[in-house]
Specification:
Elements (H helix, E strand, L loop, with lengths): L1 H21 L3 E11 L4 E5 L5 E13 L11 E2 L2 E2 L3 E9 L2 E10 L5 E11 L4 E5 L5 E6 L1 H6 L2 H4 L7 E9 L2 E9 L2
Parallel strand pairs: 3-7, 10-12
Antiparallel strand pairs: 1-2, 1-6, 2-3, 4-5, 6-7, 8-9, 8-11, 9-10, 11-12
Amino acid sequence: MIKTVALMSALALSTSLSFAAQDVVSAVDGMVKKIDSGTKTFVVATKDGTEHTFHYASDVTVDGAKDTDKSAKGTLNGVKEGSKVAVHYTVVGGKDTTHEIDKIGDDGLKATEGTISHIDRGAKTVAVKTADGTEETYHLTDRAAKDTGKDIAEGVDKSAKVTVYYTEKAGTKTAHFIKSSF
């Protein structure tokens, strides 16, 4: 009886750990190489040439896309082959699956580089000092506050070199993705 209870407990724990591991959100940025709406997949090539294949869900959102023609062949909610993107994904059933894409560039999210000068997770803001000495404060989206910049918050707050991908509306800058620049 005790062996059965122990076995059931171990099985329950391993199942819950498996589900917890699937909830980890990762991000990768690069250039869209291919979109296949039939299989609901797309391929992103990173700066180092590595290609990542992502599956996308029907509820995928694209931040920074102005052209949201969903019916155009070869596009994904305003993202097309050649678009620079940051992809937020989890592993679901052994597949990298995305629910959010940040479109980066002239017609998408803006980018700025600098050094972290202050992080306020409670207020969901981050201040970045740029190379010319100006300091910009960005509001963080819920995902940016939760999923990106974790390495920044773990010990190198005030000296971390970063790239901030953001939108600007009515004078308010909102960071969607923060990438460490090691």
